Amino acid sequence: MDSLETAADRERLRRVVIDPVSRVEGHGKVTLLLDEEDHVREARLHIVEFRGFEVFIQGRPYWEVPVMVQRLCGICPVSHHLAASKAMDCVLGARITRSAEKLRRLMHYGQILQSHALHFFHLSSPDLLFGFDSEVGKRNIVGVAAAHPEVARQGVLLRKFGQEVIRATAGKRIHGTGSVPGGMNRHLAVEDRDALRADIDRMVEWSRTAVALVKQLHQADPALYDEFGRFPAKLMSLVRADGGMDLYHGALRFRDADGKILLDQVPDQAYRSVIREQVKPWSYMKFPYLEQLGPEEGWYQVGPLARVQNCDFIPTPLAESERLEFIDYGKGEPVRATLAYHWARMIEMLHAAEVIRDLLGDGDLLEGPLMGDGVRGNEGVGIIEAPRGTLIHHYQVGDDDLVTMCNLIVSTTHNNQAMNTAVREVARRYLDGRKLTEGLLNHIEVAIRAYDPCLSCATHALGKMPLVLELAAANGEVLDRVVRD
Amino acid sequence: MGGTFLFDGQPVPFEDGQTILQAARAAGRYIPHLCWHPDFPPHGSCKLCIVKVGGRHVSSCALPARDGMEVESNTPEINGERRALLQMLFVEGNHFCPSCEKSGNCQLQALAYELDMSSARFAHFFPDRPVDASHPDVLLDFNRCIFCELCVRASRDVDGKGVFALTDRGIHKHLVVNAESGRLADTDFAVTDRAADICPVGVILRKRVGFAVPIGERKYDRASISTVAMEKGE
């Protein structure tokens, strides 16, 4: 079967562009090349932004890095803040205190909760509740609020709660400064703890409702949910030493497309011994791969779908019960459907709510030493499971305290090949040979959206991005044009 | 002796030898400033303390108060000029408040808030100014220098070391370290020097503690720079 990555006779084909892809974080575009019979011959997801953080962090003092690099993103800055802090902990050789680790965990699971809620309710639920080619004017969170007010209300308040957890631990809802190399600079205030505790049981309950909603969607239309954008893929995520899910810290585990463990307990500091990155001329985003399998075979998925299936168990009871049901749904096979990302994501949101509930009862959040120390080194790697998947920060620091090398592999980068594969699967299945409509093109966006990509790791631009579709002949003549304001 | 002058229409008493700025402060009236510091003689270079006396612009930190003067300070015209000076300072250096460890303790940032500066207005210069991390305890980030010369004066007049100097002129003016190599590590500068704690912006920084106090809980996060100056005398 044609891979659809690069067509052989590109100059003779018509080009359709989805630019920008909407209801995702950041900016990207999709190009489709079609032949005279409207058969899709090439499909690519392009990342059109170039950031350059890895270069301009060089020459800056190491203690500034966790604050500076989080500016990569306005949606999950906590992930960058903490991954950089963890890497710098290694540079300092610091043993992190109990209080500091628990505060960071609380911050991180607050981040998971708010980001997952934002993605599911604000960005994806309009497609899932109304249909991919439903009336475009209502296919947004405002439409959800009108048709399903309680669903929208819970989504908004779940996200708000997660943001409050972040504010209480990091100092601000966005771009806080609570975590520093070697530990934290603040405890949780008693009044913040009490306010969060007053609401957490409801958040757990609403997260259960969200899981139930996704399950209902799968059960109502299994033909769509089980098949849409389905393809085999390898998986990568952090797991604990005992194989349990841990989104803050762990070692790398890879599974092959059949679910068999390929590599396990790869220490975070050794990521470079197993992961390589490939550059392709048509995208600013690199293509990471498992070195032992090479660039063609070594690509893998990260994020909720990978994590929920990669771990041996989830260490909170409600989420673990949902995980077991999810695994059963695969009937012995890994669950491969692209839309199952939403299901897995909601299981993780439930897990995050449970973790937050448990942590809020811990007195170490309110008092105890915040800073650890140790023997200073010159290199450190910090890996964390960000909402969208595995996030790797790697730094070298000179004896003068300035950063000399920075390598960042963000979650969406790991999913680059998987998202391109999803786009091609959907193009092949739903668009091939048909006259393109907005609704059909939205199928492509639905597949991309399922990954919750943060295409630039940039500020969120919900609902403000216009979509312009142009169908052009090979000679450049515009044959058809659809504009969405 | 001494006397009284009118400050924005209100009488302000002064003693002989007091400048307009000193007398105004003593009377609880704030005048913005960057290069002036209560522990040092007036310098008159930043011009943020500019006021209008008898229709003429003067530096209030340097002009002795005189009986019967009519001083205009907190007016839209004067504040507009101060804001323009701030905007020029912001574009002349590399001032990235979001990731700057001095955020919340920086007088330039605090004054920008005080004077409602909402944009940089002018084109940024984006100068290339490498940091000096050679000293074991102190980092110099020249990107943020506003040429107030407080470090120059503190090192020369208090520490007796003369570690810092401004060199070149006009648009090429910049802060240098007084060593053959140009590196702070090759001077007798110490973290206990008066010059180590005098910088009103984020040039002279103690290493490794930049974010020990959370942003949001710092001096000018809690109160405006005019309030801090009037209530704490800083």
UniProtKB/TrEMBL annotation, chain A:
<dbReference type="InterPro" id="IPR018194">
    <property type="entry name" value="Ni-dep_hyd_lsu_Ni_BS"/>
</dbReference>
<keyword id="KW-0560">Oxidoreductase</keyword>
<comment type="similarity">
    <text>Belongs to the [NiFe]/[NiFeSe] hydrogenase large subunit family.</text>
</comment>
<keyword id="KW-0479">Metal-binding</keyword>
<protein>
    <submittedName>
        <fullName>Ni/Fe hydrogenase subunit alpha</fullName>
    </submittedName>
</protein>
<dbReference type="Pfam" id="PF00374">
    <property type="entry name" value="NiFeSe_Hases"/>
</dbReference>
<dbReference type="InterPro" id="IPR001501">
    <property type="entry name" value="Ni-dep_hyd_lsu"/>
</dbReference>
<keyword id="KW-0533">Nickel</keyword>
<dbReference type="InterPro" id="IPR029014">
    <property type="entry name" value="NiFe-Hase_large"/>
</dbReference>
UniProtKB/TrEMBL annotation, chain B:
<comment type="similarity">
    <text>Belongs to the complex I 75 kDa subunit family.</text>
</comment>
<dbReference type="InterPro" id="IPR000283">
    <property type="entry name" value="NADH_UbQ_OxRdtase_75kDa_su_CS"/>
</dbReference>
<dbReference type="InterPro" id="IPR001041">
    <property type="entry name" value="2Fe-2S_ferredoxin-type"/>
</dbReference>
<dbReference type="InterPro" id="IPR019574">
    <property type="entry name" value="NADH_UbQ_OxRdtase_Gsu_4Fe4S-bd"/>
</dbReference>
<dbReference type="Pfam" id="PF13459">
    <property type="entry name" value="Fer4_15"/>
</dbReference>
<protein>
    <submittedName>
        <fullName>2Fe-2S iron-sulfur cluster binding domain-containing protein</fullName>
    </submittedName>
</protein>
<keyword id="KW-0408">Iron</keyword>
<dbReference type="Pfam" id="PF10588">
    <property type="entry name" value="NADH-G_4Fe-4S_3"/>
</dbReference>
<dbReference type="InterPro" id="IPR016214">
    <property type="entry name" value="NAD-red_Hydgase_HoxS_gsu"/>
</dbReference>
<feature type="domain" description="2Fe-2S ferredoxin-type">
    <location>
        <begin position="1"/>
        <end position="77"/>
    </location>
</feature>
<keyword id="KW-0004">4Fe-4S</keyword>
<keyword id="KW-0411">Iron-sulfur</keyword>
<keyword id="KW-0479">Metal-binding</keyword>
<dbReference type="InterPro" id="IPR036010">
    <property type="entry name" value="2Fe-2S_ferredoxin-like_sf"/>
</dbReference>
<feature type="domain" description="4Fe-4S His(Cys)3-ligated-type">
    <location>
        <begin position="77"/>
        <end position="116"/>
    </location>
</feature>
<dbReference type="Pfam" id="PF13510">
    <property type="entry name" value="Fer2_4"/>
</dbReference>
